[in-house]
Amino acid sequence: CRCDSFRLICSVFLNFAHPSNWGKKKKICVCSFSEMWYWVFLWCLFSSLFVHGAVGLLMLVMLQRHRRGRLITLVLVSVGFLASLTGGVITSAVVAAVYRGAGKDMAPLEALVFGVGQTALAIIISFSRVLATL
């Protein structure tokens, strides 16, 4: 089960976007460790970009009257994004290693769930204040 990235992107897009392909089962898989890591990380990256972009816009609006509001926004969004990017690289590699170690292939939808789930868990942990109790 070896598939290239372009074919995977096109087939995922066609399966989800075009109504005539809904309900039809096609065997699409992400098979190698590097492909699994790439797709999980890619979803984590895009969801993290979305969250940090929205929060950055909110910070710009709320701090527009502050003397150094733009600088504070830029620094905090950059540091937050780099921290989530580093965590995403590591956890995506762990997910891919577990799948590869189990000898299991990954569907593109599973990569989406793991990638967006990493961002969601980071948000939940950030707001839960669990780290402050340690």
UniProtKB/TrEMBL annotation:
Q: Which species does the entry assign this protein to?
A: Denticeps clupeoides (denticle herring)
Give the family per the record: Belongs to the TMEM170 family.
Provide the primary localization. Answer: membrane
Write down the superkingdom of origin: Eukaryota
A Pfam family of the record is Tmemb_170
Q: How does it sit in the membrane?
A: Multi-pass membrane protein
Q: In its UniProt entry, what is this protein called?
A: Transmembrane protein 170B
Cellular component, GO, one term: plasma membrane
| Keyword Transmembrane helix set for record | yes
Residues annotated as transmembrane: 36-62, 74-99, 111-132
Q: Which gene encodes it?
A: TMEM170B
Q: Name one GO biological process term.
A: negative regulation of canonical Wnt signaling pathway
What does the UniProt entry say about where the protein is found?
A: Membrane
Which keywords, in A-to-Z order, does the entry hold?
Membrane, Transmembrane, Transmembrane helix
